[in-house]
Amino acid sequence: MLHSLLLALVAVVAPWLLPARFEAGAFYHPASNHAPTPAGCQQVTFPTTDGLTLHGWFMPARGRAPGPAPTVLHVHGNTGDISNHRAVCDFLQDAGFHVLLFDYRGFGASDGASGPLRREWLVEDTRAAIDYLLTRPDVDHDRLAVFGYSLGAVLGMAASAERERVRAVVTYAGFATWRGVAADKAGPLGRLLIGRGHDATDSAAALGARPLLIVHGTRDGLVRQYHADLIAAAAAAAGVPVEQLRIDGGTHISLGSDPQVRERVVDFLTRELGVPQAAGE
Predict the structure, then answer these.
(1) Residue 90 above 80 pLDDT?
(2) Lowest mean pLDDT among 98-107, 117-126, 181-190, 218-227
(3) Is the dihedral of CA 207, 212, 218, 222 positive or negative?
(4) What is the pLDDT of residues 218-252, one digit of tens each?
(5) How many CA atoms lie within 13 A of 19 on its CB side?
(6) Region for residue 193 given its phi and psi (left: phi exceeds 0; alpha: psi -120 to 50; beta: otherwise)
(7) CA–CA separation, 77 vs 156, rounded Å?
(8) Residue 128 and residue 267: Cα distance in Å, rounded?
C-alpha cells in the first residue's frame, strides 16, 4: 500500500520538479564572485518585489555634459557574474550612454535564490533593474533602452514588453523559445522537460511601436541562427519595427567584441534615444 502511494506521489510531483531542475542546470551557471568595483563605476544595490537585494555597477557615460543622460540596461548571459560581462557593454560609455550592469539573484554579490533558479525570477530581477533606473535623477527616464545578450536577450525582451518606459531593445544571440533551444541540445527530451513562458517570439511581438535590433552570428554554435529569424518574423508580423544584423562567420562569443556590431548598436541607440550631449555643448 505504501509503495503504491509513493509511486502515485512521484507521478504527481515529478512533472513539476524535473522541469525546474532541468532548466536550472541547463540554463543558469552563476558564479559567486565579489569582484571589486572597477574605477569609474558605481556599486549599486536595488530591491526586487519579493524582498531580495540585487547588486550591480552603474557605469556613467564618459565625456558628456552634466544632467540626465540616455541610459542602457545591459542584461547579461547565463554564466559567471558582472565582472565577466563588463567588456561587452562598456563601449556604450564612450558613446555618451550611462550603462547599468547587474547580476540576477544567485549570481555574483546579489542575494541568493530560495531554490533552483527559474526564469520567472530572473525576469522579475530584470524588471527590478528597469524600475531602479527610473528612480535615478541622472538617468533620462524618457531615453531608456535594454541590451540583452544570449539568455539576457530573452529576459530583457520579456521585461521590456512589460515596461513601456523602455524605448528600444537590442539583442545579441537570443533564442526564440525555451523549448526550441532545449531541443537543439537534448532532442525531444529537452522539449519535454522545459515548460512554456517568456519566449522571445512572444515578447518581441509585444513591443508594439518600440524598435528592436536583433544581432546574430551565422556560426553561432550555442544558439543557432534560425532563432534570430523566428524572433524577427514574430516581431514583423506584429508590426514591431525590427532590424536584423546577421554577422557572417560570427560566433556566440565574437559578437561581444565585433567593431561592426558595436558601430551598428551605437547608431541604432543614437537614432532611437537621441544624440547624447557632449561636455561643453
Answers:
(1) yes
(2) 181-190
(3) negative
(4) 999 999 999 999 999 999 999 999 999 999 999 99
(5) 15
(6) alpha
(7) 11
(8) 27
Which residue has 533564442 as its cell numbers?
175
Domain boundaries, given as residue ranges, for the chain: 39-273
Task: Match domain 39-273 to its CATH number in 3.40.50.300, 3.40.30.10, 3.40.50.1820, 3.50.50.60.
Answer: 3.40.50.1820
pLDDT digits (tens, 9 = 90+) for 29-83: 998 877 899 998 999 999 999 999 999 999 999 987 778 999 999 999 999 999 9
Rounded to 5°, the CA angle 39-45-51 comes to: 165
Inter-CA distances, 108 with 27, 33, 36, 159, Å? 16, 5, 11, 21
- In one-letter notation, the amino acid at residue 105 is R
For cell 554554435, the residue is 221
Q: Would you call 31 exposed, middle or buried from its count of C-beta atoms within 10 A (0-12, 13-18, 19+)?
A: middle
- φ, ψ at 166 (rounded to 5°): -75, 125
Residue 13 has pLDDT above 90, yes or no: no
